[in-house]
Amino acid sequence: MSATQVAHSAMAPDEGVRRNHVPGEAGIWIFILGDMGIFAVLFATFLVYRSKDVALFDDSQQHLNTTFGLINTLLLLASSMLVVLAVSAVRKGTPRPAPLLIAGAIGCGLAFSVLKVVEYTGKIDAGITPQTNTFYMFYFLLTGLHWFHLLLGLAVLSYLLVSARRDRHDARQLAWFEGGGCFWHMVDLLWIVLFPLIYLLN
C-alpha cells in the first residue's frame, strides 16, 4: 500500500464521523422537536380559524408593522449566521473569534426584543389587545410565545458566551455548545415561518 493510500485510509474514518455528526445531544433534539411540534399545531389552528373569517384576518393584518417584522427577520438570520461561525470556530479548536461572534448574536436578539416592545406598545396604545378579535388573539399568542423562546435563547447564548472563552472544549462541552446553537436556530426557524404567516399571508 502506498503512502497516499495509507494517509487516505487513516483520514477516512474521521471524515465519516464528521459527515454523520449530529450536533448537540439527544436531549436537546427531543426538546427542539417537541417544541416545534407544539408550534406546528398552533400554526395549523391559526390557519383553520383564518379560513373561517378571512376578511377579519386580512383587515386586522393591515394594522401590523411589516417593516418591524422584516427587520426582525433579518436580525435573526444574521444572528444565526454568527452562531454558525462561532460553533464552527469552537469545533475546529480555534475558539478565539467565538466570544465576539456570540456577543454579536446576543446584540441581534436584544435588538429584536426592543422592536418587539415598541411594536406591542404601539398596539396597546391604539387599543389593540388579545381581546380585540381572533386575529389579534393569535398575533399576541404566537409572537409572544416566540418572544419567550427568544428570551430563553438569549440566556442560552449568554452561557455560550462564557463557554466560548475556553481555550479547549472536551466532547461534552462541545456537545452543549452545539446544542445551544441548535436551540437558537430553532428560534430563528420559528420566526421565519411565523413572520409570513402572521404578517404577509393574504
UniProtKB/TrEMBL annotation:
<dbReference type="InterPro" id="IPR000298">
    <property type="entry name" value="Cyt_c_oxidase-like_su3"/>
</dbReference>
<feature type="transmembrane region" description="Helical">
    <location>
        <begin position="182"/>
        <end position="201"/>
    </location>
</feature>
<keyword id="KW-0472">Membrane</keyword>
<keyword id="KW-0812">Transmembrane</keyword>
<feature type="transmembrane region" description="Helical">
    <location>
        <begin position="138"/>
        <end position="162"/>
    </location>
</feature>
<feature type="transmembrane region" description="Helical">
    <location>
        <begin position="28"/>
        <end position="49"/>
    </location>
</feature>
<feature type="domain" description="Heme-copper oxidase subunit III family profile">
    <location>
        <begin position="27"/>
        <end position="202"/>
    </location>
</feature>
<protein>
    <recommendedName>
        <fullName>Probable cytochrome c oxidase subunit 3</fullName>
    </recommendedName>
</protein>
<dbReference type="InterPro" id="IPR035973">
    <property type="entry name" value="Cyt_c_oxidase_su3-like_sf"/>
</dbReference>
<keyword id="KW-1133">Transmembrane helix</keyword>
<dbReference type="InterPro" id="IPR013833">
    <property type="entry name" value="Cyt_c_oxidase_su3_a-hlx"/>
</dbReference>
<dbReference type="InterPro" id="IPR024791">
    <property type="entry name" value="Cyt_c/ubiquinol_Oxase_su3"/>
</dbReference>
<feature type="transmembrane region" description="Helical">
    <location>
        <begin position="69"/>
        <end position="88"/>
    </location>
</feature>
<feature type="transmembrane region" description="Helical">
    <location>
        <begin position="100"/>
        <end position="118"/>
    </location>
</feature>
<dbReference type="Pfam" id="PF00510">
    <property type="entry name" value="COX3"/>
</dbReference>
<comment type="similarity">
    <text>Belongs to the cytochrome c oxidase subunit 3 family.</text>
</comment>
